[in-house]
Amino acid sequence: MRGRAWLGAALVLGAQLRALWLAAAVEVHTAKEVVAVNGTNQRLKCTFSSSSPVSDQLLVSWNFQPEDLSSHEPVFRYLKEPYKPPSGRFKERVTWDGNIERNDVSIIIWNLQPTDNGTFTCQVTNRPDVYGTIGEVRLRVVQKVSFSEIHFLAVAIGSASVLMIIVVTAVIICQQRRRKARDKRMEVADTEL
């Protein structure tokens, strides 16, 4: 009787695991935080993985939660094709930049403004995967690039330029010295003959 109980338990467990496999979750991946300069455009990257092939019922929803925690706003939707929002702050400022075949559901926000500070959420549903994580991107819009970033870039470019000048100068000096030494040896050889 014990053998039958184990067999029954194994069959029930196998059926449950199969059901869990069929109802697997979609995993959504985003950058956790993005910093962009006021007035520029920013790509908000969102990719996903699913245990099922991408279906024609794939649904992508982008939403926005402002920093002041007022109500969520729809930003973008994709169901068989991209749908821009008919109203709201992102009406004429968002475009689709994804590629469904590559599991990329990214968007671009145009002409960023300080009022765009907040959290963008990316949700993907790919039937038969019924559950999924929600990706979050915290966007910070700054007035200009911080001094430390500009300073670092200037130092890197300046150092590379100075290094190139030193290397070129050293090569030219070495070539001139070799030429002079060769010419001197030839003069000495000519005088000896």
UniProtKB/TrEMBL annotation:
One protein family per Pfam: V-set
Gene Ontology cellular-component annotations: plasma membrane
Domain (Ig-like): residue spans on this chain: 24-140
Signal peptide as annotated in the record: 1-25
Compartment annotation: Membrane
Keywords associated with the record: Disulfide bond, Glycoprotein, Immunoglobulin domain, Membrane, Signal, Transmembrane, Transmembrane helix
Keyword Secreted: no
BP GO terms, sorted: cell-cell adhesion
Membrane topology of this protein: Single-pass type I membrane protein
Transmembrane segments: 150-174
Keyword Transmembrane assigned: yes
Similarity-based family: Belongs to the myelin P0 protein family.
Protein's name according to its UniProt entry: MPZL2 protein
Organism: Myiagra hebetior
Upper classification of the organism: Eukaryota, Metazoa, Chordata, Craniata, Vertebrata
Gene (UniProt): Mpzl2
